[in-house]
Design goal:
The protein is an all-alpha fold. It has six helices and no strands. Helix 1 packs antiparallel against helix 3.
Length: 87
């Protein structure tokens, strides 16, 4: 999991989504509908081969059943991207 990075375009889209809906990442992950939308944003940023192997529906299910883990993971990846951008 540590090898996975969230691309700048996904970071921007996720940030725009959260700002538009006036949500924190935690609030978005705690609601099944918005959780699925976050999963769709992340899924869209994956390489095509991974998207074919790991369908959006599977990702939505995984994000919902493992929402606390995924929230922590996304926060870690966003923080890592922030640190990388500052160096």
């Amino acid at each position: 999991m540590k090898q996975f990075e969230i691309s700048n375009s996904v970071r921007k889209e996720l940030s725009n989504y959260l700002n538009t809906h006036n949500l924190s990442l935690k609030a978005a992950m705690d609601n099944e509908t918005t959780n699925g939308e976050v999963a769709a944003i992340v899924h869209a940023g994956l390489p095509a081969m991974i998207r074919k192997i790991y369908s959006l529906e599977k990702m939505k299910t995984f994000f919902w059943t493992k929402k606390d883990l995924m929230m922590e993971f996304i926060n870690m990846r966003l923080d890592a991207g922030d640190k990388k951008g500052k160096n």
